Amino acid sequence: MTISADNSNKERVYIFDTTLRDGEQSPGATMTLEEKLQVAELLDEMGVDIIEAGFPIASVGDFEAVTAVAKQVKNSTIAGLARAIPADIDRAGEAVRHARRGRIHTFVSTSPIHLAHQMRKTGDEVIEIIQKTVTQARNLIDDVEWSAMDATRTPIEYLMRCVETAIKAGATTINLPDTVGYAVPEEYTAMFRTIIEKVPGADKVIFSVHCHDDLGMAVANSLAGVVGGARQVECTINGLGERAGNAALEEVVMALRTRGDAMPYYTNVETTHLSRASRIVSAASNFPVQYNKAIVGKNAFAHESGIHQDGMLKNAETYEIMTPESVGIKATTLVMGKHSGRAAFKDKLKELGYELGDNAFQEAFVRFKDLADRKKHIYDADIIALVDDEVGSIDDRIKLVDMEVVSKTSGVHRCVMTLSIDGEESEVTFDGMGSVDAIFNAIKQGVGQDPHLVLYAVDGVTGGTDAQANVHVRLEMNGRIASGNASRWATPVQSRAPSLVPGALRSASKSM
Ligand SMILES: CC(=O)SCCNC(=O)CCNC(=O)[C@H](O)C(C)(C)COP(=O)(O)OP(=O)(O)OC[C@H]1O[C@@H](n2cnc3c(N)ncnc32)[C@H](O)[C@@H]1OP(=O)(O)O
Ligand SMILES: CC(C)C(=O)C(=O)O
Ligand SMILES: [Mg+2]
């Protein structure tokens, strides 16, 4: 495996997590105090160096959250954000003074567009503001970070004047953010190289990157900044953050760990916590993690295509550049589907306890491919049904001819169903507590079996009241499980929805 844990000859990069501040700025991502404390606790346990816990002047709730995190966290430095305004800096100082290691993080705009329209100040006025506010912060605390908001759209000569002023006033960390995700990696590297080389006192401070993902380059830019000399990376779990988000912590950390050969840097983050951190932040912020998200997405260590599955079974390094265990995921998943091949199918059968002879195996594989062409999710129960001797035998015996469901806001729900069993049609009528209950009662009566409904799930495939829906059904009887699914457009209350049931009935019947 390419992963190397040998950090000798590598330089340390400090991880500054801003999930609780910039991450929380994502619309809808507001977290409660308890959730913030839980996230902060985990970040501390993971070995994150600095946790930006909030923006204390923003609200009483934010002040209380930063104070509570500062009091609770044992190891990480706790930062509080402040504009270049005296009241902000005092408030941030008041909150972070409770921490074992506290930091005031103050920022001001430096780009021409921000100066003209956001700050409505001249360049010289902003230089004076930097001098005064950084000095004020330094008088409150030893650890002061200064950020040049919109640094990447700031002329380099002016940016150098600002940085020099902040360093002279006592800033210990200088952050040059790509606030609007505008930079490309080469220019971000060059910006750090120039500033570190030319600004007096640059060798006495730590430079930091803070990148947004508006063009999808936040992680690439962060690493480019490190190459240019930055030694602190500001990032968030799951890439949560303003607009398109910030650089994802898990991606930065795993990129440095996995490609230590190309980038000689390391972080102190214990990577086996990454998956858990992602789940906790996703739950707290109400932001689902996309399936194909790098490192922590549901599919990050899942393989469906036969060629990849075959390779994985021979040697995991064929298609995985890091182990799932290294990020806290138990194991790789080989997902059975229409792209799977014989190697994965054989492996799955073995896992399910089946050993088939060559002919039986080939036949089962053909049936599996056929099913996978028609069915989106292949469950283990589907494969068990496939290799069962009775597969398909009941399928042709039972057919749904017609069904009518009447649902009322009061009173019972009724299903009138016509089934054809061995070519003979019969009509059954059954009531239920709801329409689904009535339908399943009617099926049970018509078929003369009494399976237990384990799962009934409806997923909307499209939007609107005329949405197409997928219905998934799983039944259990005498220790055997059968599942099926079918799609159908929604219909009005008094409905004829025959195809909702046949899929379920067909699969269910197969293995009963
Ligand atoms: C890139 C970033 O992520 S920056 C951080 C963004 N995060 C947030 O804004 C979340 C928290 N913010 C808030 O709760 C509020 O905006 C507050 C409490 C900070 C300020 O609220 P208000 O006083 O009502 O001001 P409002 O939000 O309307 O406007 C921002 C003001 O701050 C000024 N400002 C913005 N950044 C800075 C700065 N770095 N230094 C000094 N002043 C600044 C703006 O020019 C504007 O001033 P103006 O009202 O004199 O024109
Ligand atoms: C406050 C600063 C650091 C910021 O979030 C940004 O510039 O994106
Ligand atoms: Mg930001």
From TrEMBL:
Residues 13-275 form the Pyruvate carboxyltransferase domain. GO terms for biological process: L-leucine biosynthetic process. SUPFAM superfamilies: 2-isopropylmalate synthase LeuA, allosteric (dimerisation) domain, Aldolase. It comes from the Bacteria. Its EC number is 2.3.3.13. Pathway: Amino-acid biosynthesis; L-leucine biosynthesis; L-leucine from 3-methyl-2-oxobutanoate: step 1/4. SMART domains: LeuA_dimer. It catalyses: 3-methyl-2-oxobutanoate + acetyl-CoA + H2O = (2S)-2-isopropylmalate + CoA + H(+). Catalyzes the condensation of the acetyl group of acetyl-CoA with 3-methyl-2-oxobutanoate (2-ketoisovalerate) to form 3-carboxy-3-hydroxy-4-methylpentanoate (2-isopropylmalate). This is 2-isopropylmalate synthase.
